[in-house]
Amino acid sequence: MAGTSRGEHRTGLVNGFAAYGMWGLVPLFWPLLKPAGAMEILAHRMVWSLVFVGAALLFVRRWAWAGELLRQPRRLALVVVAAAVITVNWGVYIWAVNSGHVVEASLGYFINPLVTIAMGVLLLKERLRRAQWAAVGVGFAAVVVLTVGYGRPPWISLCLAFSFATYGLVKKKVGLGGVESLAAETTVQFVPALGYLIWLGAHGGSTFAGEGAGHSLLLASTGVVTALPLVCFGAAAIRVPLSTLGLLQYLAPVFQFLLGILYFHEAMPPERWAGFALVWLALGLLTWDALHAVRKPRVVAVSPLVEAAESPQAAEPAQAAGPAQADVRRVG
Questions:
Q1: What does the DSSP 8-state code read for residue 66?
Q2: CB contact set of 325 (below 8 Å; sequence gap of 6+)
Q3: CA distance 243 to 241
Q4: How far apart are CA 207 and CA 118, in angstroms?
Q5: pTM for the complete prediction?
Q6: pLDDT in tens for each of the 332 residues of the chain?
Q7: Among 90, 103, 148, 61, which Cα is nearest to 261's?
Q8: In 10 A of CB 53, how many CB atoms?
Q9: Which residues are CB-neighbours of 332 under 8 A, at least 6 positions away?
Q10: Closest listed residue to residue 82, CA positions, set 173, 18, 197, 199
């Protein structure tokens, strides 16, 4: 039985590395879809994700959740909100990568746990421990330093972080599993996305049929690129501890950051290094505090949103390890 447990843990780790590795390497994929613009790529991602996930659900015959969701207008409304927010997140990320802002996009997912904590304080009146307050303060200082470095606020990073944190908050309230969640959200997105693609084709702006079969297949594969990491994450979430997933989640922005510098050759002047160093210091404080809290649990009134942030399994929404957690890290 111990061998089985070790085998399950090993399987979970492999799937965790696979999920976060794919999310970390996804900046290599979006440029392959050029000359399609960000809006066309986004629309194809919505359409093909539903096709892929719908086929998967049809294969495993998991449809009971859909009927329950349709009978709960409040949850259905939250799904619509979640779909709108993740649309913004996906669109900004695709545009950022294909416009040469991979490093700034990676920053968004580095600061996402800090934004989640800040939202918990501002919106839910949560109480934080001293280390968490320190992390938020250092994170704010990092944004100031990066604003000076960029000559403007790092709006791409902030948009990704805030949209992702908002998505996490909404998704925790919906409580659907990863594949089901993606199916529900892309169902909401499907009609507008398909309508946009039809309109784009009618006006001669579509690249789907005009750039060869290979390009068409790449656009269709956006559904696989979206859903496959979620499947791996779902397999990891039920097999490894939450603290392990919390540490693994930093792989994705680290890979993205390294790709931005080493592969895309984006500039990193000293002031940007200083800003990133402050962000990493803040994340180090959060990680230390989270691990310390696991070892020595204290009776502190903290809501699930802050627990999700301090896990530190970034916001989308870190839930108790289980099938419902499979939608947590929909990066890029």
A1: H
A2: 178, 233, 234, 237, 238, 318, 319
A3: 5
A4: 41
A5: 0.84
A6: 455 577 788 888 898 899 899 999 999 999 999 999 999 999 999 999 999 988 888 887 888 888 888 889 999 999 999 999 999 999 999 999 999 999 999 999 999 888 888 888 777 777 888 888 888 899 889 989 999 888 899 999 999 999 988 988 888 788 777 788 889 999 999 999 999 999 999 999 999 988 999 999 999 999 999 988 888 887 887 788 776 777 788 899 999 999 999 999 999 999 899 999 999 999 988 888 877 776 665 444 444 444 433 333 333 333 333 333 333 445 56
A7: 103
A8: 25
A9: 23, 26, 27, 30, 90, 93, 94, 97, 105, 256
A10: 173
Residue 8: left (phi > 0), alpha (psi -120 to 50), or beta?
Answer: alpha
Q: Hey, is 321 helix, strand or coil?
A: coil
CA 12: distance to chain centroid?
19
Distance CA 311, CA 97 (A): 28
Tokens 């280390």: give the residue.
131
Residue 266 CB neighbour total at 10 angstroms: 17
